[in-house]
Structures are given as C-alpha cells and as structure tokens.
User: Fold these one by one.
Assistant:
Number 1:
Amino acid sequence: MDINPTRNFNLAYIILDSVFILVLLALLFLKKKYRTLLWSLFGGALYFLVDFGYFYLISGSRKVLINGTVQGEGYTALILLWMSLSYGITNFVFIWLCLDKDKNLKEWLILIIGWWLIAPSLAALGGERIIQTTRTTGKYHWIMALFLVVGYLYLIIRNLFFKKEKVDILKLNLIGISVQFAWEAALLINGIRPLDSASLVTLLVDSLLETNLGMPYFYFIHKYIFDQPEEEKELSLNNLK
C-alpha cells in the first residue's frame, strides 16, 4: 500500500514553530547541552538533504501547494527547510537526550511533545490552512526498510555472539518508534494530517519505519563518539581543575 503523508497548515504555524525552535536551541545552549545542540542541527540539515534533495529533486515524490497551486523550487525549498529544521531538530534532541539518559529528560520531552500538541491550536488564530505538503512513499519506503533491517539485524547478531556490552534493542525500538509516533499523532489529532481511511496505516507505518530505521546507527554514533554523558563530562573537567 502506497502511503501518502499530507499536512495542511498556515503561515502562523510556520512562524510560531520557528520561534519555538529558536527557544529550544537557546535552552540547550544555556544548559550547556552543546553536543545535543550540534547533533540537533545536524538532524535538521540531514532532514533537509533527504526531503528536498531526495524526495523532491530526485524521486519527485514531494509536492508543496499554496491555495491548491503546486509551488516551484523556490517556495518548496523554503517550506521544506522549515519542516526539516523543525522535525529534524526536535527529533534528534528527543533521541539524543533519551540515549544520554538525561536527568531532566521528562522536562525536555514534555516541552517538545507539549509543543507538538498545542502549536496547531495557537496557529488557528492565523486563519485558514492554505499550505499543503504531500509526498508518496512507494519509491523509497523499501530503501528505508532495508536500512532498518540491516541496522537491527547487525545488533541482533552482535548480541547473540558477543556477551559484553549487549545493546538494549527493545529500548532503541521504543525511542525510535515513540519519537515519530508522538508528532504523527499530534498532527492527526489537530487535523494537520487529514483523517481518512489511510490515516491509521500512515501513523503506524511511518512510526515503525521512518525514524526508527536510524536508531542502530544513532546508537553507535552516541556510544563510540560521545560515550560519556554531558553532565559527567562537565563534572570530570571540574574535578581536574
């Protein structure tokens, strides 16, 4: 079944969400979450590379419409840049802080998920939702599935044959599925994602696949490049002083 994720929103939603992203980045900076901050910016850039570079330019599966009119490359790039930074940054903050077992994880997640839930209601003050984004998935979901299978198969084999440092695969799945499920559900609840016969399938398939496919790779990036939690590293540096 070809999944066709669609969103409808207005300019107010873009403006309010952009302000929230700046606030989120500022909070990370003030809390000295520098690695999380850099990781989240990388996530935004990666999402834009995939969304605009592959979905729009290469596969032709992505479309942006304003008042029912398909937009050209310029407006499409701008709207996809906002979308990519918004969900790339929040998703990667969500993932990184979960992997970090951050001491304020509940507060960060309430902040992010709470915003996903309340933002559309605030944006309703901006009038009708005249902007629509849509994409088909038949051309690339199999590629995503392949990445997911390879990543998790490696973790399973690693756990079966290496007794030391077993990876909590269920935990990685829970993080990978929950981050996308949270914002997909928020979009659906608020009517940004249309409620139709394919809504449940879109929610489940996207949640199981699209962010979750990266979790095995994110795990090793976190473990082997940034293994020590930021709070412990800061404490160690203070002890050295």
Note: The CA atoms of residues 48 and 84 lie 5 Å apart.
Number 2:
Amino acid sequence: MSRPGDPGTVPGLWIDSHCHLDAPEFAPDRDQVWQAARAAGVAAALVPAIGLANCAAVDACCQRYPGCVPAYGIHPLYVHQAAATDLEGLAARLAERRPVALGEIGLDGHAPHGDFACQERFFVAQLKLAREFDLPVVLHVRQAVDQVLKHLRRIRVAGGIAHAFNGSRQQAEEFLKLGFRLGFGGTLTYSGSTRIRRLARELPREALVLETDAPDIPPSWLPRGRNSPAELPRIGRALAELLQEPEVELAARLRHNTLAALPGLAAALETG
C-alpha cells in the first residue's frame, strides 16, 4: 500500500469530481496546471460553473483540455448577482449543449450577504431544470444540509454528488438514499479533521468520490497555497492510507463511483 507521501501514481484512474479549472487563479499557467494533473495520473475532471456568466469560460476550458467536462449552474454564493432571466438562459444552455451535470447549485447558510430565501428560489428552480433535463446535480451544501435534503426529497433528480460533504453520518445516509455520492478532498488530509476522517472510514465505499475543489480547499501540505488537480492522486493516497486499502483498488473504486454519479463522464474518458 502506498503511503500518502509516496511519489507513485495510478496512471489514468483518478477523476477529479470537482475542479474550478476556469478560475482566475489559474490564468497565469492553466496549460501547465492541467498538464501536471495528467502527468500525475488524473484522467478527467468535472469543471462546474458558478453562474450563467462564466459558463462560456467553463466551455472554453473543457474544449481546450482533454478529459475536462462541464457542469452548468448558478452557485448559491452568486445568486445575489443573478437576474431572474438567468434561469431562462440556463435552461436554453442546457437544451443546446447538455452538460454532464447541473451545478454547482445548492444552499449556503454561511453566505455573508445571505438572502437565504433567494438562494432557495434559485435552488428549487434549478432542481426542476435538472429533473426536466434528466441530469445529475452537483451540490454545494454549507451549513444547510437539512434544508437541501428537504428540497431533494420534494423534487427528485437523477442523483449526483454532494460536494465537499461536511454533514453527519445520519445526513450522509439520507443523501445515499436519494442516489447521491459524497465528495471528499483536501480536508481529510488534516489529522485534526477527525469527523471527516471518521466519516470516510465508516461510510460504504460506494458512497465516496474524490475531488480537489481547486483552487480552494488545499490539502495539508499546501495549507495556504493554491490547490490544483495535480494534488488529487496524493489526496487519494492519503485516503487509501486512512482506509487501509491498496491505492490501485481504491482509485478504481472511486472511478467507478464517479462514473455512476456522473454517467456523461464516460464519453470524456473515451475521447480524452
């Protein structure tokens, strides 16, 4: 079994289920960032939009870098910048280009400008779009797990991923009942993240997918640095150590889980 610090990789097996490769933090060296990720063993990445205005940037990124695939959505932290017509624009884009998922959408109870009612309106409307277009969703869930679950029970969608999951074991099981996988990333690499690490150990293996959320949520070896998709295999090795599971077996299992959550990714792997 590989140790978290080992330099080895599992070529072509790792999938970053949440990576904002289009973010301005990568503007100076985006080509090199994705090249480094591929060299490290990352086969594919989901690049989620945060609003209608940046869907074009997500598309450009995914067209430029083999293995990258888009998700379109309006992030809860940006709904205060969105117009009601953005939902119509999102629906038109979904009809025209059909992404791998609808996202990043959800609720954030920690939003500094926080009009939670506005967040809920956009979230509900986007869940209805996901149901209409039969798309999985990529969820942002921060200090609002029960509220998100309430809406998911009412508006059933084709599963997806609860990104950067930070809820309880009971809440995790509710997401699993609704057909979701749970995203784990850099947070689990910190020895002090006892609850997240315990969750990763206790949950069924089929519940887990791996992510970076790059450039955010850096792992323990980059505590104040820019996260990148190239860090994913090392995060995976940390998870393998935590679970006491061979790295190659875990990588294959996580790949299977990600493709089950996001079936449209399979085509990107074939062409990437």
Note: The first strand starts at residue 14 and ends at 16.
